[in-house]
User: Fold this.
Amino acid sequence: MTWQVLILTSVFLYSISVLLQRILLKEEKSDPKTYAVFFQLLTGLMIGMFGLVFADMSFPDVKPLVFNLVLMTLLYGFGNVLIFESLKRIEASRFTIIFSSRALFTILASSLLLKEGLLAKQFVGTFLILAGIALANVKAARFSFSKKEAMALFAAMIFGFVNTNDRFLLKSFKVYPYVFLAFIVPALFIIALNPYTIKNMKFFVEKKVLLKMLLLCVIYAVSSITFFASLQIAQSSSQVASINLTSVIVIVLLAIIFLKERDFLIPKLLGAASSFVGLLLVS
Assistant:
């Protein structure tokens, strides 16, 4: 299987997973913190089992990495809660455009922490992403940015910085054991802060909901696996990253078609296009 097929498969499956998450989170009994725990544990276990069968799951010496592993736990823990809190309250299409700004924060973090300089085109890309976010939040001929949109933006900021931390840790970790930890450990952290989530999981183990969660986690796990597999065999990681960015457009279009998210359609489409071009420039 070619890397092009793998990354396109990843983009499509990831886009489907966002729509499924929106559907599950819209349920009245679906608590975002409990959802975050259940989703991360289930997906992490699936990836871990795949890694045990097909990959090397050995761990490096973690003593020199304790600070960065704690940082990973905190950022992914709080970041995932914010993602699902916002996705419960706003449309999948609008959330996706706002969350795409994580690329800006990754660039900023890399510049500050890894001393990677910014190019002129990245400044242009930054402007286009911000313009896309503004367009996505145009409602009734005015700009509207409430607390729920702010949660998505804050989640993007957290994920921008955690991705820089990921890059540092992946110099020592193999991919699959690291991804396994990045799902499981933050979930346990959320449980430690919110013990009630254990009791609330009974909603997610109901037959109809559990089947949807299993389907979602399989789709998300395969999306992650095909993404990393494409990175392994592609000649250029930038090509993989660029194609991966098309998920912004795909999610917006699928949400319009299947979730009927058709309010303020033109600004939303323009926002998605602007963010996509901006992401290409900053990547």
Remarks:
- The chain has one domain: 3-282.
- The beta strands are 138-139, 142-143.
